Amino acid sequence: MPDPVVLKSGAEPWGAKPRRALSRRNIVLYGTLLVAALYYLLPLYVMIVTSLKGMPEIRLGNIFSPPVEITFEPWAKAWATACTGLNCDGLSRGFWNSVRITVPSTLISILVASVNGYALANWRFKGAEVFFTILIVGAFIPYQVMIYPIVIVLREMGIYGTLTGLVIVHTIFGMPILTLLFRNYFASLPEELFKAARIDGAGFWQIYGRIMLPMSMPIFVVAMILQITGIWNDFLFGVVFTRPDTYPMTVQLNNIVNSVQGVKEYNVNMAATLLTGAVPLIVYFVSGRLFVRGIAAGAVKG
């Protein structure tokens, strides 16, 4: 074994000064994080344990106690047999409606917004500043004020109350903020790459497909998470622009939880809530690291 390093007489030790594990700073920092984590995790814990209890156990009143006898019957009922208005087929129909709404809305809006952001960042076409200003205004207009005109437009097009109409609405409302994200991200990439590609004779689509897209995975993940979360959790557009047979999952969840007929089954309500929120949570947990990277990269330039 090598001999330990011995400091010469009078020499000062070098390197970072070790910090105490229980310093005041660490206590405040981790204490705050612990309180915040408990604040958000406690309701989730209550929902999970309630969804795994039977109604006789729930009537005992201790919402924080773990289930004495675990049952998955509330989950099965919430998915397949719970009444969501006139229909009693659970959340299964709404789940597939939400999938048919979310997938095309996310893909179309991200593809169009990425091309828009790329053009605004690297190709200074005529009227680009006006177009960018319109996007900024559109990104911050409350969409509630646009509901009635959109209803009229979709009705005249003959697609009001259909999944196609709701896909168009989500696609249009998602593009302004996504375009801003992509524009900022592409503006943060080294401009020399774009200029070198232009010198080599590459055109608009060649640069976009061969250079920009391979370097843009983090911002695509950010856009995907934002769109999936926003569209999947949407209630207002779903209840306004669709009909009972095409209701998304969130509208059906509202019908289950707010039902005034029969016994209030809190375990079924909690199971239905967890089933409805499962998709965005899974998407975020799978790609959360890329989400943070994309947000940080897209905030470099304005």
UniProtKB/TrEMBL annotation:
Query: What InterPro entries has UniProt attached to this entry?
Result: MetI-like (IPR000515), MetI-like_sf (IPR035906)
- Cellular component GO terms, alphabetical: plasma membrane
Q: Where in the cell is it found?
A: Cell membrane
Q: How does it sit in the membrane?
A: Multi-pass membrane protein
Signal peptide location = none
SUPFAM superfamilies tied to this protein: MetI-like
Q: Which domain of life is it from?
A: Bacteria
Q: Which GO terms describe its biological process?
A: transmembrane transport
Q: Which residues form the ABC transmembrane type-1 domain?
A: 95-287
Asked whether the keyword Transport is assigned, the reply is: yes
Q: Give TM regions.
A: 27-48, 101-121, 130-151, 157-182, 270-292
> Keyword set for this entry?
Membrane, Transmembrane, Transmembrane helix, Transport
Q: What's a Pfam family in this record?
A: BPD_transp_1
Q: Which family does it belong to?
A: Belongs to the binding-protein-dependent transport system permease family.
- List the PANTHER family hit by this protein, alphabetically: ABC TRANSPORTER PERMEASE PROTEIN, GLUCOSE IMPORT SYSTEM PERMEASE PROTEIN GLCU
Q: What is this protein called?
A: Glucose/mannose transport system permease protein
Species this chain originates from: Shinella fusca
